[in-house]
């Protein structure tokens, strides 16, 4: 593929050059320089009439363009084949050499290996262990290297085989084109003749063109003169017509203006009328709004009245239910739910009818389509059975299971059903609640009875017209399983009963034979069993063998496991007996395997063993027997197989608490024991008799039981329910609890759970109400409850302790029932009862909890305790305080008597001390400060004391400062030092405080040092120290609380009088908009003129030394990040003088805030992009869905709209509806998620120059609402003049502080173009060019502003092209600013746009540059080398753009310039005087075609880029002096670089050159006339070889001190790379007759060598003068060098040696012009580019 691409590239290049040849055919040349200003258009006009004058018919043997392309292509392709063949042959020979070297290496290693092997054996024989180990290691290394070399040899052999194969392929490929070379040679000669003919034709055309051009120029000049006269005449005529038109216009101007005024007046009147009409419409709208508001208020009032009426009706209904003894809230809830259900049912029926209509129409359309298909394809419906098999049969109707309460007897249940039958249709919903008598509890019923209840209840509800149809449709199910048997209901395995097969009846014999067989069988049985008599005693026991164990019991088995039991049978009869295994029960045969060997006769007391293996396959209980037969009769061995079960029991069913005093807590424990192997969940709860539910203290996630515990008579053991039971027995129907009816109704709506029991379902469905019911034990008044610590799971073979807690709150007898229910179905519920009696105490306190609230330490608190006696006698009281609190609390009196039916008052004193935390650890909590003290009152003759509790929160009254000492340091008399302290209230009570006796130079804020501190609050206080003079201060601050506690702080400070002062201590800037600036001035003053401290205050630090009088230096230190600048910030002020300091405030937005906003901008854009993609995706999905829906609807029946289903259908149509309803939807469903979430980029990734950053900055400017900031700037002072920064010593105490207030407001005008950037960067612009950019500004203020702008530099490159104007709110204006640099430099200027309150600063930045380029040419002369005549060679160089902007370049040749003839008139190089520039135009082609050309000759190079230029050298005759000047221009204006390109053309492949110049570089255009030698000269040289050329070499040997130095000279021998296929590629040269020159001291380094194509060789000839040489005479000699390639040529080299005293200077060449910028050439003298070669040919 690479070779093919190379060939195609060469083909394209060849095509280009042929097109260039064609273009040269249309060119022209001028003979005189004065005709150089002819226009191109005139030239084209002149060419057209003469174009066909010299056209000739195409020659028969003419080579067309396609043939030329093929010629070039094949020539290059054959050259590539030759090169490829040479490379393959070289590679093959190189690989063979490598293989030989590798084989030699292998043989050496084998020899070394064998030698080391023998040496190892010798060492072993000599027992030289060290040497043997060393040799053995060398031997192993040699083996390893041998293996590696072997692998390398195999790899080289593989490469050699591949190289030989490729070489053979190349030779074969080259052999295919041997005949093609001859054809190419013939075509080459034809092509040469063709070009000669073309040259003659072109020359004739050029001559004709020159003549016609000269004529046309004269005609053009004449036409131009006539046109000028005509233009002047027309101008005069137009001026006269304009004057006449102006006079006509003035006549009608007044009339037109009057019409315009009238029209404006009418417009104003029409506008006023429209405005009045709009005002009227607005007023009318306002009135309508007022009216509508009143109507809405009326409707709201009506709705409120309706709501009140409904509330009244609900209240009446609730009162009626309450009067009848029902639950009013539940009944109202049921009523509302029924109404809502009816409403929902009506809405559902409407929707159902619409759905039925839709389904019916679809079914009809499908049936019609089915009929049409059946008519069209009747052969598909021939078998009726197959069609019937496709119909889906309906399912059998499933019975609805309910959760109704269990009943005990079927008679009661039948009675309950009869009540439903006799119940009439209810007219009101409340009749359903009051009129239904619940069936007795415990009655059992089946699913058919449940269905009857549901039907009865559903019939009592009001039904609409469509309800029957709905129920009919719902009763039929058309679903059918896809495979038979998958939905069959699993039938529970039933153990079959033992079946005794009567063999006699089963046989086919006569009746008589059967009777005979029975008699014989009976006789046989009687003979088998005999009566055993021993020692006169008859054995009458039923079984003569006893088994151990008596019953084989496989207990708690697991399915899939095997169990074995060994049974021992003992003969307990009186004598010998035998035992025979008859069989076992049929239903045990699949599970039991018996191993029994009959023991034969067993004596009495002997035993035999029986092994029984049990393999259970089902998890069910099995019972059966194993039948044995003995001599005394048959006996059986019972077998029982039982699954894992729960065996639950309690140790007691009645719990007696006895008698307890109110307030005591008693606990009783019940032990629940599980002796079974199956664990179960349990639920232990209390029966409350409320809503038929059980109250339990189990967690909310535990499942509760809904079954109601029953008493003996089937009703709950509650007085209220007992009364209902009695009423029901008497036959009187009384209303039952509405909650019970609601529970029954809700049970009818529960879904059927297949295979689950009622008890299991109660556990699974009661979890949702467990949490709500668990809260009800707070309502129990008896105080009996279940402990929360009870377990909810009992494990196998374990026991659990269940706890019942009784805490009586009401005196009297208390009874309660508890239910212990289990999840296991086979475990019955256990009912527990508990009872107890609660009594009250005679003596009690009125307040059980005495709360002293919050008490502080060391403060006394008192309260009274009232003790009352309800007894009929006086009682003695003794008050007891805990021993640890007797230091802090006291009850007075300690002993007292309370009279009968009276009260007693005791005094409580509480004085908490600081040690209360250590004294009362058990009563006091240090973390919260809560004190809870239980106190006891002992009553005589009463065992239970009267307890009460005293509560208090103890706290301290401490106020704590964050510091104890304050050092204000050094403060000047012009400022105030502030110290911030924190005051903390350690108490939990608010405290008032105040600072008393403050010095006059101290101030405390806020509130002048007074205030209130909230509990545990810490407030900040600022203590301001303002020294009035310079001295040392020591003072004390005293803070007092409201309870007169004092807290002191020691303070100290030093007053400083600085040597200078500021004119203002506080500077207020005006409100400055963001990105704007404001300037303020202040003065720093030096008033220190004298050191006399007695006449005036002097500058000093405290009581230190007085500052000297003299110049004082200062330095302002602006805080980091503050938008402030001070000028000057450092300086010196002399005594009695002042210095002005300028302050500049320039607010900007924080960078971090802008980056955060930029992140939000990026996220917002990403979300919008994601949402857009998501919407597009949804749209496509929706279109696809609609397309599918249209395709689906296209097949529907046209008459679908006509088929309208009836509102009610008979029951028989239900199956069709159900069939259509159960069909799956065929429409496509869209399931596409939302847009993908967007991840916010990190803040650090936002660059300051990014668009996101600029957009965020613009957004924040719009959202900015204003800010106010205060900065404090220190000013350091030092005595003396500031000479160098850092040398002046200063004291930190002599510091002035300047406070600056900086308000910032929102700007009025912002830039909205370029993402809000206020900097316009024009980048790099070339000098002489200009660039316009637009900046758009917007008014973001709420008022109109008038904008004005600053003047830009009139001599600068920036210019504003349009003026500013007034901007209404939210409007924008675009400014056009031009940048036109005139010199290479950086330019920057600021455009100020002034508004009323702010200024917008637009920065203008640009750079004027001179575009520069570089060429990768090392030599100012670009040598194209040697090439054969009529062939060409290509060389490349690169132009690199070193500037940052794009440049347009063009390459021009001197040979194509209009001044080329003038330049060629200069003197040649060998006679040119020094100092004059040389002529770069050398020998050119004789046939008119440019000898040098380049591609591309013009283009654009981007900033920092490069362009590769291809130079082509194509000579048409032999010469060594082809040259031309090349100029690179930028923007067609400036010449950037120039260089000279040279080349040589040779007639033959081999050439010899060098030495001294023997020929002029200028060729004559006249043909060379051969000189005919005379006969005498021919005879003299007839035996000599013909000489192709002569070369003169000069040798200069320097003579110094009688010694001659060696001189050298080089001769260049080259071999041209030819494009001819038939020519040899390589050449050789040989120097002949070496002895002749050797005798004269001349030697040649390489007298003979081979040269490859395209190379040249410098052959060095050295001359060493002989010792006998006369230095005054030159030595001359010559030698012949023969070159051999396609032919043999001889060149004579003339050698001349001279002895000189110093080496001669090298000849000066005119090629010293390097690649440097040239002077700009005028446009009329600029050379033409190669693209205009068609217009100027030499």
Q: What's a quick, concise take on this entry?
A:
With 1738 residues, this protein is of the alpha+beta class.
Short descriptors:
single chain; 1738 residues; alpha+beta; six-stranded mixed sheet; 24 helices
Task: Report on this structure.
This protein is an alpha+beta fold and 1738 residues long. The chain is 30% helix and 30% strand. The protein is built from 24 helices and 79 strands. Strands 13, 15, 16, 18, 20 and 21 form a six-stranded mixed sheet that branches. Strand 15 (680-687) and strand 16 form a beta hairpin. Helix 2 packs across helix 5 and helix 6 (328-376) crosses helix 20. It is extended. The model is unreliable at 1-60, 397-507, 690-762, 764-779, 1198-1232 and 1708-1738 (pLDDT under 50).
SSE layout and pairing:
Elements: H1 2-24, H2 40-50, H3 65-125, H4 129-175, H5 178-323, H6 328-376, H7 384-390, H8 410-422, H9 429-434, H10 447-460, H11 467-474, H12 503-506, H13 511-528, E1 533-534, E2 537-538, E3 545-548, E4 552-555, E5 563-571, E6 577-584, E7 592-595, E8 601-602, E9 607-614, E10 622-630, E11 633-642, E12 648-650, E13 654-661, E14 666-674, E15 680-687, E16 694-696, H14 719-729, H15 738-747, H16 758-765, H17 770-774, E17 784-786, E18 793-794, E19 798-806, E20 812-822, E21 830-839, E22 843-845, E23 849-856, E24 861-869, E25 875-880, E26 889-892, E27 895-898, E28 903-910, H18 916-919, E29 930-939, E30 946-955, E31 959-961, E32 965-972, E33 977-985, E34 991-996, E35 1002-1005, E36 1010-1013, E37 1018-1025, E38 1032-1041, E39 1046-1057, E40 1061-1062, E41 1066-1068, E42 1072-1073, E43 1078-1085, E44 1100-1101, E45 1112-1116, E46 1124-1127, E47 1130-1133, E48 1138-1145, H19 1151-1194, H20 1214-1221, H21 1251-1263, E49 1267-1279, E50 1295-1305, E51 1309-1311, E52 1319-1326, E53 1331-1339, E54 1345-1346, E55 1348-1349, E56 1358-1360, E57 1366-1367, E58 1372-1379, E59 1385-1394, ...
Parallel strand pairs: 4-11, 13-21, 23-30, 32-39, 41-50, 42-50, 52-60, 62-69, 71-79
Antiparallel strand pairs: 1-2, 3-5, 5-9, 6-8, 6-10, 7-9, 10-11, 12-14, 14-19, 15-16, 15-18, 15-20, 17-19, 20-21, 22-24, 24-28, 25-27, 25-29, 26-28, 29-30, 31-33, 33-37, 34-36, 34-38, 35-37, 38-39, 39-44, 40-43, 43-48, 45-47, 45-49, 46-48, 49-50, 51-53, 53-58, 54-57, 55-59, 56-58, 59-60, 61-63, ...
């Amino acid at each position: 593929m690479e070779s093919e691409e190379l060939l195609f590239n060469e083909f394209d290049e060849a095509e280009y050059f042929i097109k260039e040849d064609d273009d040269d055919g249309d060119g022209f040349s001028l003979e005189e320089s004065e005709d150089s200003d002819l226009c191109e258009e005139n030239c084209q006009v002149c060419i057209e009439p003469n174009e066909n004058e010299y056209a000739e018919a195409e020659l028969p043997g003419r080579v067309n363009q396609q043939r030329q392309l093929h010629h070039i292509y094949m020539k290059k392709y054959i050259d590539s084949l030759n090169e490829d063949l040479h490379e393959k042959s070289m590679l093959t020979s190189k690989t063979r050499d490598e293989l030989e070297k590798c084989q030699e290496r292998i043989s050496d290693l084998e020899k070394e290996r064998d030698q080391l092997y023998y040496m190892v054996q010798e060492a072993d024989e000599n027992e030289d262990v060290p040497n043997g180990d060393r040799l053995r290691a060398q031997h192993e290394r040699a083996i390893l290297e041998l293996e590696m070399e072997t692998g390398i040899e195999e790899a080289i052999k593989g490469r050699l085989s591949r190289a030989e194969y490729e070489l053979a392929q190349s030779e074969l490929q080259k052999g295919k084109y041997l005949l093609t070379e001859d054809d190419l040679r013939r075509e080459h000669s034809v092509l040469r003749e063709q070009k000669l003919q073309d040259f003659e034709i072109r020359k004739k055309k050029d001559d004709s063109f020159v003549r016609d051009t000269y004529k046309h120029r004269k005609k053009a000049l004449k036409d131009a003169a006539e046109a000028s006269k005509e233009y002047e005449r027309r101008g005069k005529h137009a001026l006269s017509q304009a004057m006449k038109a102006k006079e006509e216009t003035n006549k009608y101007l007044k009339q037109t203006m009057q019409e315009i005024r009238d029209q404006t007046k009418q417009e104003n009147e029409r506008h006023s009328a429209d405005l009045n009409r709009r005002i009227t419409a607005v007023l009318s709208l306002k009135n309508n709004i007022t009216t509508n508001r009143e109507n809405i208020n009326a409707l709201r009032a009506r709705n409120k009245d309706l709501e009140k009426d409904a509330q009244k009706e609900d209240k009446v209904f609730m009162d009626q239910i309450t009067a009848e003894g029902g639950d009013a809230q539940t009944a109202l809830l049921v009523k509302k739910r029924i109404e809502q259900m009816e409403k929902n049912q009506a809405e559902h029926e409407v929707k159902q009818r619409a759905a039925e209509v839709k389904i019916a129409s679809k079914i009809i359309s499908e049936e019609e389509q089915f009929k049409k298909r059946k008519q069209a394809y009747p052969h598909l419906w021939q078998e009726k059975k197959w069609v019937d098999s496709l119909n889906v049969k309906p399912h059998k109707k499933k019975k609805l299971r309910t959760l109704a309460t269990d009943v005990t007897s079927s008679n009661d249940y039948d009675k309950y059903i009869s009540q439903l039958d006799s119940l009439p249709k209810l007219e009101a919903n409340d009749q359903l609640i009051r009129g239904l008598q619940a069936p007795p509890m415990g009655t059992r019923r089946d699913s058919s009875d449940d269905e009857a209840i549901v039907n009865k209840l559903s019939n009592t509800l009001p039904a609409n017209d469509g309800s029957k149809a709905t129920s009919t449709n719902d009763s039929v199910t058309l679903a059918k399983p896809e495979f038979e048997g998958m939905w069959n209901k699993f039938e529970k395995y039933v153990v079959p009963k033992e079946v005794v097969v009567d063999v006699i009846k089963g046989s086919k014999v006569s009746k008589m034979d059967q009777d005979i067989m029975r008699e014989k069988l009976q006789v046989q049985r009687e003979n088998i069993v005999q009566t055993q008599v021993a020692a006169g005693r008859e054995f009458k026991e039923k079984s003569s063998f006893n088994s151990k164990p008596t019953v084989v019991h496989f207990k708690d088995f697991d399915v899939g496991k095997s169990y074995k039991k060994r049974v021992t049978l003992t003969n307990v009869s009186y004598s010998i007996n035998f035992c025979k295994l008859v069989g076992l029960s049929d239903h045990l045969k699949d599970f039991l395997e018996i191993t029994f060997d009959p023991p034969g006769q067993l004596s009495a007391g002997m035993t035999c063993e029986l092994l029984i293996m049990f393999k259970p396959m089902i998890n069910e209980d099995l019972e059966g027997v194993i039948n044995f037969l003995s001599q005394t009769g048959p006996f059986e061995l019972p077998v029982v197989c039982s699954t894992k079960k729960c065996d639950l029991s309690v140790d007691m069913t009645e719990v007696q608490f006895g008698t307890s005093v109110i307030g005591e807590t008693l606990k009783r424990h019940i032990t629940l024991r599980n002796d079974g192997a199956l664990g179960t969940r349990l639920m232990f709860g209390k029966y409350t008799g409320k809503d038929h539910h059980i109250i339990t203290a189990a967690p909310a996630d535990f499942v509760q039981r809904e079954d109601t515990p029953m008493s003996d008579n089937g009703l709950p053991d509650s007085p209220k329910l007992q009364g209902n039971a009695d009423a029901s027995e008497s036959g009187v129907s009384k209303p039952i609890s509405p909650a019970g009816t609601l529970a029954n109704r809700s049970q009818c709506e529960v879904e059927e759970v297949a295979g689950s029991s009622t008890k299991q379902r109660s556990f699974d469905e009661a979890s949702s109400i467990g949490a709500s019911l668990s809260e009800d034990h707070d309502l129990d008044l008896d105080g009996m409850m279940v402990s929360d610590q009870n377990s909810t799971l009992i494990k196998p073979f374990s026991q659990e302790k269940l706890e019942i807690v009784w805490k009586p709150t009401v005196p009297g007898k208390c009874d309660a029932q508890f239910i212990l229910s289990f999840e296991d179905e086979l475990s019955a519920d256990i009912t527990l009862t508990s009872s107890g009696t609660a009594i009250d105490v005679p003596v009690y306190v009125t307040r059980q909890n005495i709360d002293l609230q919050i008490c502080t330490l060391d403060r006394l608190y008192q309260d009274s305790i009232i003790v009352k006696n309800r007894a009929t006698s006086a009682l003695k009281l003794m008050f007891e305080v805990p021993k640890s609190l007797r230091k802090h609390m006291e009850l007075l009196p300690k002993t007292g008597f309370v009279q009968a039916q009276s009260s007693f008052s005791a005094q409580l004193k509480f004085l908490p001390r600081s040690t209360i935390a250590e004294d009362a650890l058990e009563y006091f909590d240090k973390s919260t400060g809560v004190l809870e003290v239980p106190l006891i009152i002992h009553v005589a003759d009463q065992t239970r004391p009267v307890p009460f509790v005293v509560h208090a929160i103890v706290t301290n009254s401490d106020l704590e400062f964050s510091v104890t000492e304050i050092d204000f340091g050094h403060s000047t008399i012009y400022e105030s030092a502030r110290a911030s302290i924190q005051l903390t209230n350690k108490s939990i009570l608010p405290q008032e405080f105040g600072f008393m006796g403050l010095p006059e130079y101290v101030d405390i804020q806020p509130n002048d040092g007074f205030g209130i501190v909230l509990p545990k609050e810490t407030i900040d206080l600022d203590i301001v120290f303002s020294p009035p003079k310079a001295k040392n201060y020591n003072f004390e601050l005293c803070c007092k609380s409201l309870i007169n506690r004092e807290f002191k702080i020691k303070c100290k400070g030093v007053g400083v009088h600085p040597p200078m002062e500021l004119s203002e201590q506080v500077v207020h800037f005006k409100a400055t908009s963001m990105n704007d600036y404001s300037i303020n001035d202040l003065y720093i003053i030096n008033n220190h003129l004298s050191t006399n401290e007695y006449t005036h205050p002097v500058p000093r630090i405290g009581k230190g030394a007085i500052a000297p009088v003299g110049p004082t230096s200062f330095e302002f230190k602006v805080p980091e990040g503050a938008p402030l600048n001070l000028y000057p910030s450092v300086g010196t002020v002399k005594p009695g003088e002042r210095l002005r300091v300028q302050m500049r405030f320039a607010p900007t937005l924080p960078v971090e805030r802008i980056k955060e906003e930029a992140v939000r901008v990026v996220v917002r854009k990403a979300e919008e992009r994601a949402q857009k993609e998501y919407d597009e995706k949804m749209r496509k999905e929706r279109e696809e869905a609609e397309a599918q829906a249209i395709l689906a609807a296209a097949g529907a029946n046209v008459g679908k709209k006509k088929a309208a289903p009836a509102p009610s259908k008979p029951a028989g149509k239900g199956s069709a509806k159900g069939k259509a309803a159960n069909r799956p939807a065929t429409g496509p469903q869209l399931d596409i998620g939302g847009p993908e979430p967007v991840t916010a980029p990190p803040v650090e990734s936002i660059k300051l120059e990014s668009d996101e950053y600029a957009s965020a900055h613009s957004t924040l400017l719009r959202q900015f609402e204003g800010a106010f900031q205060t900065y404090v700037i220190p000013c350091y002072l030092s005595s003396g003049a500031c000479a160098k920064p850092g040398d002046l010593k200063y004291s930190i105490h002599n510091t002035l502080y300047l406070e600056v207030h900086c308000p910032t407001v929102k700007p009025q005008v912002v830039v909205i173009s370029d993402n809000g950037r206020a900097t316009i960067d024009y980048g790099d612009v070339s000098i002489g060019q200009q660039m316009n950019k637009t900046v758009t500004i917007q008014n973001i203020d709420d008022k109109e502003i008038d904008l004005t702008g600053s003047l830009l530099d009139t001599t600068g490159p920036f210019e504003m092209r349009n003026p500013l104007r007034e901007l209404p709110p939210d409007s924008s204006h675009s400014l056009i600013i031009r940048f036109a640099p005139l010199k290479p430099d950086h330019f920057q200027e600021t455009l100020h746009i002034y508004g009323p309150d702010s200024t917008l600063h637009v920065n203008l930045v640009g750079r004027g540059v001179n575009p520069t380029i570089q060429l990768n040419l090392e030599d100012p002369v670009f040598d194209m080398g040697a090439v054969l005549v009529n062939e060409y060679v290509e060389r490349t160089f690169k132009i690199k753009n070193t500037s940052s902007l794009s440049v347009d370049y063009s390459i021009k040749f001197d040979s194509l310039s209009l001044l080329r003839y003038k330049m060629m008139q200069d003197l040649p190089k060998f006679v040119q005087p020094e100092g004059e520039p040389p002529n770069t135009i050398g020998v050119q082609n004789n046939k008119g075609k440019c000898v040098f050309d380049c591609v591309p000759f013009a283009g654009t190079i981007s900033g920092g880029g490069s362009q590769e230029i291809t130079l082509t050298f194509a000579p048409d005759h032999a010469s060594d002096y082809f040259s031309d000047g090349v100029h690179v221009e930028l923007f067609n204006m400036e010449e950037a670089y120039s260089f000279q390109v040279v080349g040589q053309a040779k007639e033959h492949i081999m050439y010899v050159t060098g030495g001294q110049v023997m020929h002029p570089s200028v060729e004559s255009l006249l043909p060379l006339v051969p000189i005919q030698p005379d006969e005498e000269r021919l005879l003299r040289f007839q035996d000599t070889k013909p000489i192709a050329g002569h070369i003169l070499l000069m040798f200069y040997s320097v003579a110094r001190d009688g010694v001659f130095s060696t001189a050298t000279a080089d001769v260049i021998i080259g071999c041209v790379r030819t494009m001819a296929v038939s020519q040899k590629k390589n050449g050789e040269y040989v120097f002949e007759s070496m002895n002749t020159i050797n005798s004269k001291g001349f030697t040649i380094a390489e007298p003979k060598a081979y040269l490859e194509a395209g190379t040249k060789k410098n052959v060095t000839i050295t001359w060493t003068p002989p010792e006998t040489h006369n230095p005054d005479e030159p030595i001359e000699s010559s030698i012949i060098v023969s070159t051999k390639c396609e032919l043999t040529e001889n060149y004579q080299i003339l050698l001349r040696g001279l002895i000189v005293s110093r080496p001669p200077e090298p000849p000066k060449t005119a090629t010293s012009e390097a690649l440097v910028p040239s002077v700009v050439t005028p446009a009329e003298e600029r050379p033409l580019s190669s693209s205009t070669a068609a217009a100027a040919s030499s």
